[in-house]
Amino acid sequence: MTKIVKAHAIHKHFGALHVLKGVDLEVAEKELVFVIGPSGSGKSTLLRCLNRLEQPTSGSIEVAGIDMLSPKTDINHARQHIGMVFQSFNLYPHMTALANVMLALRKVAGKGKAEAETLARAALERVGLADRGHHRPAELSGGQQQRVAIARAIALEPKVMLFDEPTSALDPELVGSVLEVMRGLRESGMTMIVVSHEMSFARAAADRVIFMDQGLIVEQGPPAAIFEQPTHERTRSFIGQIRQH
Amino acid sequence: MEEIVANFFNAEIATAALPLVASGILNTILLSLMVIPLGLAAGLVLAVLAQSKNPLVRWPLMAWVDFFRAFPPLVLLVLLFAGLPFMGLELGGFACVAVAFMLNNSAYYGEVLRAGIDSVPNGQIEAARSTGLSSTQAMTYVVLPQAVRNVLPDLLSNTLEVVKLTSLGSVVAVPELLFAARQAQSTTFNATPIVMAAVIYYAMLWPLVRLLSRLENRALAGRH
Ligand SMILES: Nc1ncnc2c1ncn2[C@@H]1O[C@H](COP(=O)(O)OP(=O)(O)OP(=O)(O)O)[C@@H](O)[C@H]1O
Ligand SMILES: [Mg+2]
Hints:
The complex is a heterodimer.
Chain A (H helix, E strand, L loop, with lengths): L2 E12 L2 E12 L3 E5 L6 H8 L7 E6 L2 E2 L7 H5 L2 E4 L11 H11 L5 H14 L15 H13 L5 E5 L7 H16 L3 E5 L3 H7 L2 E6 L2 E6 L1 H6 L4 H11 L2
Parallel strand pairs in A: 3-8, 3-9, 6-7, 7-8
Antiparallel strand pairs in A: 1-2, 1-4, 4-5, 9-10
Helix pairs in contact in A: 3-4, 3-5, 4-5, 5-6
Chain B lengths: L1 H7 L2 H39 L5 H16 L2 H11 L9 H26 L3 H9 L4 H16 L1 H14 L11 H12 L3 H31 L2
Helix pairs in contact in B: 2-5, 2-9, 2-10, 3-5, 4-5, 5-7, 5-8, 6-7, 8-10, 9-10
The structure holds adenosine-5'-triphosphate and magnesium ion.
């Protein structure tokens, strides 16, 4: 199967701190990969290296056929193909939901106003917020804000979506609406890498679960295998911990 | 009492001084319309440059801003007006005010805008960059609108000071409001024109002061 993400031997240092210690990650088209692991294990850093929000110290990264680390790559153009959703939504508070989604369509994808608006409305509709376009983020619930953030990313028709703990800032009753949208994305064939501890969602939707610890991938496999029969002691104890929540 | 009215609130003198004072108002407005955008634009450049991580940019910038914040604007103005001719460069009063104010105001506006930019969470830039916006686009469409909104009271308060400072132009013979009033005073031997100037400054600035109070109150109320 075609690999849409090919990351090899990724190392990342923050000063003296060695955060990623040689991570290899390949993701096939339409695959949904879940990444779990203790706090500080480097999950966010790994995601942020993939779209080069963070510059890896060494290694190679190819996304959708683009060499992300080559100085010749137009990084702004490349990032259109890689959507990212953040734990804290990071919507632009001074713009309406619709304007949030339209900005990159206009300025990066170069769409005209009318076309950008049509595409933005379609994206908002996909996340179930067709009627919320004229609202500012402050007038939306956390779950709605996160869905606008997803719309902002998918409006650019990315080849991969990266999610960094998309539901952990949400009240429990709002988590479902966001997971619902993610499930829909998966069904439409989107390739996704999701950092999250939503185990039941992982079990139902993930093709593969990766357990990271201390900057390395410790083990990976189908959700059932990782959750029920982890081979490593560290995985077992971590899964025991998140079960209790 | 009569003497006070005759010397400070003399209607006859006021009528006679009116044309001169009116042209002074016009020049004060013109001067403000010149120095405020100049200071804001130059301040914006300083604030954006200050985001640079390169110490070769940051250090000279900091020294520049500190220098012009510490330098009394009146001294700067007189130095330009009286000093530059010795270097064979004679700028008129208007141009001297423009240059002196740009150096002085941009340092202040720059610091205000820099604080505004710093107040915008980094996640905003990351979100913008993750959708492919360049750093300039992220600054223009995402960071600056929020930055300006966050420091609007400070920007306005600085602008108030700038308008007041335009009266310094009188020192280098720019016929703004204070200069015109002084001229009228010296030809009529009466203080009424100065009182007129004071009243006009107040009338021009009071709405700004009110607006500023409202913004400040709103900012306080929004800070829970
Ligand atoms: N910009 C940075 N500068 C310095 N250190 C950083 C930076 N970003 C992350 N780190 C450090 O790198 C390590 C890995 O952080 P990272 O955010 O990738 O972990 P994580 O697995 O996502 O954790 P969490 O579950 O808490 O989100 C941590 O020790 C963190 O303090
Ligand atoms: Mg993280």
